[in-house]
Structures are given as structure tokens and as C-alpha cells.
Fold these 4 entries.
Entry 1:
Amino acid sequence: MDNDKHFNLIINIMIGLLVAAIIILLDHLAINIKSQPSDYNWQDSTESASAQKENAINDGMKKIEPGETTFLPILNFHHIGTAPQHADKISKSFYLEPKKFEALLKSLMDNGYHAVFASEAVSYLQTMQIPENKIMVITFDDGNEDFYTNAWPILQKYQVKSSMYIMTGVRGEDWLTEEQIKELDKFGLVEFGSHTVWHPKLTKATSEEIDSELANSKEFLEKLLNKQVNILAYPFGLYNEEIKNKTKSAGYISGLTFDQDAWQNPDDLFALTRISVYPELNVVKFLDELRNGK
């Protein structure tokens, strides 16, 4: 039985890493995939967008010992919607149907997970203390318009926090508008961060291009929202030591990548790992396997 669990864990990790590798290989894929709008209008909801109850999350803190990693899942999504009919299998892996997304959120909450902002997770790691209760971070990359039409009504319904990473140079009908970004920010359940300006492979960019991408995207969002933006999601998850140092110098406090793992290293806040969620992944089971297999 233990061998079967170990084998299933290895298979899930391999599938996840394959998806992450495909993200890296498909240059600017996210820019070319179109969002699918929903007929649901979250503005008709009568529920307030108050913050989640902090008492439930912070009911007892656990110290992270020096040199230890800690279990803190950071889930990543791109599209919540129906994939275009013409999309290939790889492209479709970036889409999760709204009903499946809602079922996933309910399953995570039923299993005791509480969502926090990425900035809150970083703060826990900085202080080397983490809640005894299970916490997670829900992230979205790129700034697709279907976040507003499909994901946000569900997140609002359950009062679940999420963190969105915006490509500030990409605009069009399939992407969040400045007005939508400001509207979401005001409700207090969505935290915005940088995903650079044009979503380049930073490891292939020149030093000047890296500096421009990091600084200009940060400046744009801070001016738009009138607040500090200090977390970066590396495009394609690609980074190296130079990029980590430049990210820190640009005023960020953390950088997010991919590795299909949920164990975070407080000593390396510029390489926090995320789990790419694809339709076939049983997230709760995968997290249990990661947690118990460490």
C-alpha cells in the first residue's frame, strides 16, 4: 500500500512537472489564448466582500526552525472557463471549468485549508512562524478577463482570498481592464502583483531588459492602485541568481516560480514554489501525498 501511495505521488509530480515544462516551452502562450466570458454577474450578489476571519487562521502559531522547510501550498491557475474548441490538448490544460473550480475550493475548505494572500504567506515565512491551521495561497497569472467573469463570483461567494499577477503591457478584450483591476482591489479579497510587462523569458533577456520589466510593471500597478506591489511571479517560472538579485533590488520581497511542490524554504523567498493546477489533478489528494511524503 505504501509503495502504491509513493508511486501515485511520483506520477502526480511527474505530470505536474511536465505541465510546468510545457509552460516554459510555449512562448507567450497565455497571450494568445482567448478567455471565455460568463453570463454570471457577480455585482448582483448581496454578499459583502469582507476579509476572511483571521481568528480561524491564526488560532495558534507554529515556529519554523532554522534550516527547516514548511508546508505551505501555493496553487496556480490561468483560466477559469471553457477552453476554446480549437485549442489543443496543451492549451486546454490551462483551463478549469467554473464548476470544477468551485468544487475544488469547497473540497479544500472541507479539508481544513484557509486561503491567505501571497503577501501574508511571505510575512509568515519572514517571521519564521506559521499558523497551526492549514493555509494555502491561490494565485492567478496573466490577468485574464475570465477571472472577473468566472473566478471572482465564486471567490466572492465563499469569501476566499486570491493573488493575481498581471502582465501590465498586455491589453485587449480578453484581459482585465484598469477599471476592473481597481474594482477588484477595492473589495479586499484580491491582491495584485507583478508578472512583468510583456511576459518575457527573463533568463533570455538582457540585463537592461530585466531591469525594465521588473521596474515598469511594479511602477504601473503601484500608480494604478495607489499601494505597494512587492511580489513578482516569474514568467514561465524562469529565474536564476541574477534575476533573483535584480528582483530584490527592484523592491520586491518575494518571487514565485513552479516546481509542483508545497514545501517552502523561508531562507529563499525569491524562489517560492507553486503547483500548477490542471483539470486532471486531484489537488487535495496531491497535497495530502506531498504533506505526508515529506
Entry 2:
Amino acid sequence: MSSTATILDAAKPIPERLVMPATDHLVDSLDPEPHPPDDAEDLPTAAVVFDVDAVSVYYGEFRAVQDASLKVHEHEITAFIGPSGCGKTTLLRCFNRMNDLISSARVTGSLCYYGVDLYNPQVDAVEVRRRIGMVFQKPNPFPKSIKDNVAYGPKVAGLAKKGPAMDDIVENSLRKAALWDEVKDRLNDNALGLSGGQQQRLCIARAIATDPDVLLMDEPCSALDPIATTRIEELMHDLKTDYSIVIVTHNMQQAARVSDRTAFFSVEVNADSDSRTGILVEYDFTQHIFSNPSDERTENYVTGRFG
């Protein structure tokens, strides 16, 4: 393992290439969650995957997100909602350090993954992205065969070489993405020949082929028709058994249907400079965000009074 990953060596004993500290001790020290839903009294407290504390994101001098704080829990679907330009995707990209690819971007505050600061200089961003997969707004399969799309990540990561081991990874990933039965007889066909919904499920299969703990989804259904959207939403419910999912969506009905917790973001406008900064207004169980929000701004957004 590279020296940049030294800080991860003594961590949680789940995958060997990027292991993080044990999470049991975190559960006892969690801040109490506000407004647990009425039917959640007997539910165990889920471990914290991401602990976001006063995170701000800048592009040069422009502050895109200001002082966001929240906890994302294990094996849950967490939705980010809010109007355009409020920083939902910007914060999402911080979770697997995709903003590192933008030279002017910088992140302040603390963002911990199973207790490890993801922005510690000793943490390897490439190793982070192997544990935290991402599915983008528009399906983006490689111009390769269906099989090669899924096999690409495991091959690069050294998880398997060609042969039965790789074939098993490809099949298992496609099965988890509910695509195997539709493509098993044409794995060598070009992935660009699939429908839009199939391409997005292929991208999900590609993301989970490296055995991540988390899936980040940036508006994964925005370019899909209602039938394909339904398939993706059903798939998310199935996948949260094995993965923790964070989704950005402009579709409030989708957030209400699929998520366990919802974060509402809005925009704060500086009267002097007319600059717009994204702020986290409220974070709670989805049931309460949509039925009894604590903040008037949240209520105005979910009832369609603005946005």
C-alpha cells in the first residue's frame, strides 16, 4: 500500500485496500437525531458513515457551500434536495474528493468517513474513490463492451484478472444492478447500444464492481423516462441492504419515495456583492421533512411556494 494511505493501515478490518476505523464506538457518542419518526422507536441507531462538520467549499474566492454539518448513516438512503445552485452536488462531490480534480476548489471544515478525516494529507484520494463509488446525472458508459465496462474498475484496482474470478465479479455486479437477465447473452456488445435506463444501471454495476461501501448518486434519474426511473428507485431500495447511498435529486417526490433522511439546501444571497452561497437549512428524517419540517424555508420549498 502506498505511503499516502498509511493513516488507514490500522483501521476497520473490512476491505484490505482502504480500511477505516471500527464504527462501534461512534454509535454511543452520536448527537441525538431530531424528530425520530413515530414508527422508528424500536429501530437501532445506524452507524455513522460520514460525519460532516462545518464544511465549506470554495472555488477560488467564491464560496459555494457554507458551514454544512450533518451525519450520513450506514445502510440508509440520504437525499439532498433544494433549488439549483444551492450546493447539493458540490457537497456530494466532497464525499469522494471529486472536487480535488478542480484546481481552484478547496474544502474547509471536517469531513470524516468512519472516523477518518478524508482530507488528511496522508489519505490517498484514489483509495477513497474505490470505497466511495459515484453514479452521475447522465449515463456515461465507456465505448467498450458491456463486460469490459464492469470489469474496468476491478482490473485497474487489481481485484481480479481475466478468467473465472473476473467473470464472477461481472455477473454479480450486473445481478445487483438488476441488469444481468437483460444482457447476459450479449456481454460482448457495445454498451452504447443499451437504452438510457440500461446504461444507467450498467453505470451502477460498474460503480459497485470495486466493492465500495457507499454509492453517491447525482440526479441519476434526471435523464430517464418514468419507467426507467421506477427501475432505478426499486434498485436503490435493494442496494441499501449492502451499501449506504447518498442521492442528489430535484424530484421531491423521488426523495420522499426512496430516502430515509433528507437534507434541504437553499441559497443565501449577499446583498452587497449579489453572490449566492449554498446553505444547509434542515436535515431530518424524510417523513418529518415532508410532513412537519422545523424551518419555514423547508416548508415553503416542499409545498412548492418557491424553487
Entry 3:
Amino acid sequence: MNFSSQQSRSKSLLLAAGMAFLYQDSSAQQFDGKIELLELQTTLQVAHTRILDLEKQVAAAKEQTASLSQSAASANAESSQLKECYERLKGLLEGLGIGALETSADQVQDRLLTALSDLRVVDSQKKKVSESLVSLAEASLMFAKNATTTDEAARKALDNALESSDRILRNSSVGQSDPVIVKDLHESRVVSLKPELGIAVLDVGARDGVKPGMPFEIYREDKPVAKVLVTEVRAGVSGAVVQELMNSADPVKLGDRGKVDTNRTF
């Protein structure tokens, strides 16, 4: 083998070695590219999943915001209604002289003391009016007993006035919603007297079953004191004329007990 042949073979070997190296380098680059592609695909999948989660969170947040907006609108409407109610109540309380939402215990105590004082004044005035009406009723009974008039209109007007005063007395002592207590005609009491006219006023009347002309006996404890005859009857009281005293030295007194006399007819 000559020198030129060896040289030619050496070049062939070098070319083959170069081609092999280039092939290996290209394969390595392709392998690295595949790894990078896989990494990019994995990153894209993770990012896509994250984007989907964020979109779900955004949708839920939008729903929650809408619900909160609706609740806020409802709360605002309710607040407006409550404010209007408060203003109306405040106006009513101020019209009654009561401060709205008083938080001071001293203010509340002062108002209670004032109300108690006013109540006592009203009770005192009520008692005086009742006493005046009782006196008026007694005087009217005496006048009706002794008056000799043929004026029926005047007598009717007097009867109407007495009935009106009797209603006022009943309403002042018993509430309208309270039940009417019917008294026992065997347990009545003498509540007023006019000895000079021989008149005794008993605490029973028409609502208890008393009628004009009904006879009563007056007792003190268990001892009979007098016999009386009812001449005027009102709703809660009646006026009776003393017909007979068991003892002239022992007249009828306040607090004596009256008992309907079933032995006498009327």
C-alpha cells in the first residue's frame, strides 16, 4: 500500500468520525428540545388549571357581591322604615311630655315622681267631686221627698241629673272594664243620714235589685234598730224613709246594717 492510499483512507476515517460526531450532537440537541417541550406543556397545563380555579373564584365572588348588594338594599329599606317609626313614636312621646329614649335614671325617676304627684292630685280632686256628688244626690232626694210640685218636666230633669251623677260616681270608683259586683240585700250598709228629715241612704240600688217601696230593717250587730221604706232608687244607692224606731233614744247611725224585710210586702 502506497502512501497516497493510506492518506486517502485516513481522510475517509476522519470524515466518518466527523459525521458520527455531528449525528450524535444533533441527537443530543433533539433530546434536550423534547425535555424543554415537555416542561413547557406541563407549565401550560398547571397555568390552565390555575386560571380555571381563579375564574371559579371570581364567579363565586360576583355571586357573593350580588347577594351582599341585595342584603344591603333590604337593610337600607328596613332602616328607613324603622327610622320613620322612630320619628313617629318620638313625636307621640314628645306630645305626651315624655322624652324619647331617656337613658338617665335621674330623668326617669323625676318623671315618675312627677307622675305620682299628679296622680295624687287627681285622686284628691276625684274624691272631692265624689263627695260633692253624694251631697248633691242627698239634697236632691230630700228635695224630691218634700217638694210639692206638679211640674213633671222639672222632676224628670232632676231625676236625669241624679242618674247622671250616679253614673259618674260609679265610673270614678269602678273601672269600666271591671265586673259589676251585685251586693247582698241582707248585707247593705247605711252610708249617709239626714236625721232631721228621717232619711237614710243605703249602699244598694237598682243594680242590686232594690225597687221603690221595698221595706228594709236596720240592725246594729244583731239588734234591730228601725224599719225603713225605700222611696228613691238609683243604680248604686237608694234613699229610705225611717218609718219606725225600736227605741226613740237609739236612732239609725252610719254603718248600721240594712236587711230587706221579707215579712212585709210592697
Entry 4:
Amino acid sequence: MTKLILLGKPPAGKYQLVYNSKYFFPLRSNTFHFFMNKYDFFQVNISNHIARVSFNRPEKANSLHQPAWDEMKALFEEIDETPEIRVVVLSGEGKHFCAGIDLSLLMDIQKFQQVNCEGRKREALRKFIFHLQDCITAIEKCRKPVLAAIHHGCIGGAVDIVSACDMRYCTEDAYFTIKEIDMGLVADIGTMQRLPKIIAPGIMAEMAYTGRKVFGPEAEKIGLVNRSFPDREQMLAGVMEIARTIAAKSPLVVRGTKEILHYTRDHSVSDSLNYMVAWNAGMLMSNDLMEAFQATMMKREAKFEN
């Protein structure tokens, strides 16, 4: 059964709800709407501008089969287009954070052998890999910061996923492993491209060549995560506190900051400074700027539009 989660307080008086395939909108106000939790393999809960998203295949160690990959892409695209959501916390239900690609999906690759033409066979496989990459890139393209809260296993494709998140936090018993090396394939959906921008190249190479487990304390030491917590409860409390801090900031500025950080990662200092000038020339004069100034002068908490 589809579950609806109300964001904000409905306006006073009578109002009518209109369905548009994703949301219910009140005719009298556009200050709130319903986010439709229509996902089978993810739990989505939204409160105080924070989306709590959880992998929800605990019976499969939160490994992702094809429908789950497709859902993840659709979910983060929807979050990106939902103004009330300002920050995302990504975690996993059950024993593990995420075990990456479901083995059934890897077995499905055999279907490409049925294509007689070698060129078309390779073309179909190329399209399949591109799609999985796009499912993860949807996290990176989401304009809202995504905080990964990782407990126990973060395996294979899950490392690709957390590499696309803005920040990573874990428990001391969490472990990260680039498992593809033991499965006879080169990790191909993001780890090799994003993780070297996060940790030292030598450590990255060691993880990729050996597939060894990197546990929470070491993950913090090498910069793979921002912080390692004693247990899952303390980790979620700590990550939610950070999420609340971000959610209280100007959403326009937070979205712009993510854009600039990503651009800077992939470009030279000179190009990034030039892009920064163009960005602020277009975005600087906003209601949020005036609200921040007024709140500072009046010594009150700033209240920003979504």
C-alpha cells in the first residue's frame, strides 16, 4: 500500500488536494505538499526538511537487484525536485548497510550471450553498465547534500554508492571492501573514478588490488569517512545532528555550494574561480542573503524559503 508523508502543516480552512502522479498539492497554498513514498526497496521518511532514506532489502543484506537500482535512481531524482527536502541521510535496514549488486543481477549478464551479433552484444552490455552508473550518479546530481550513515557491511557496489555521497560516517564495526577484484571484474560503476578524489591514491590502489576490509577506525584515519562512532545508535544521532544543522541553512546557498564543490573537484583552480564568479553574479542577490543579514542584525534564527 502506498504511504503518504505530510511535509509541514496544512493551511487553515478547507482545501482541496490535487494528484499529479507524484504529489498532492493544496490549491490554496504551495507551501507544502505530500511526498509519495511509493518505493518497494527503500524506506523514505521526511521530517523537518530531512529525508531519511534506507535500503530496505534486509533479507538480502540490502543487495540491489535491477528493480532496486531503478528505484534508487528515481528516488534521488524525486528528492532533487522536492523543495521541502534540504538534506538526505542514507542508511540501511537490518544487519548491513548495503551488499552492493545482487548476485542475480550479475547472473543476468549471461543473457547478453544470446545476442548473435558481437557488436550488438557489446553495445547492449555497454548500455547496461551505463545505466547502473547513472543510478549512482543520480545521488551525486541530487542538489541536496547526501550523508551516508554506514553500519557493518559496505560491500562492492555499495562503495560505489557511498563514494557518490557528499559525506560518509560509519560505526566502528563497519567495513568497506572493493569486492569486485575477488569476483573477476574491474569495479565499473564509480569507485575507481570517485574514491581516488576522496582518499590517498596509494590506499585506494591497495583497497582495489586486495579487496581487503577497511574497518571503521581505519576508514576515519584514511579520510574515507568523516567520523567513526562506537555503535549505530550513536552514529545516527550524530549524523542527524549534522543534517539538522545543514537543513537550517539557506537551501539556495547549500545547493550552490554543492554545485561549486563538484565543479572544483573536476576542474582547475583557474577554471573554478571563473565559474565561481559567474555563479555568484547570477545567484548572490537573493532573498536568503537579505534574510541572513536581518537575522544577524536582529540576533534571531534565520528562516529561509525552500
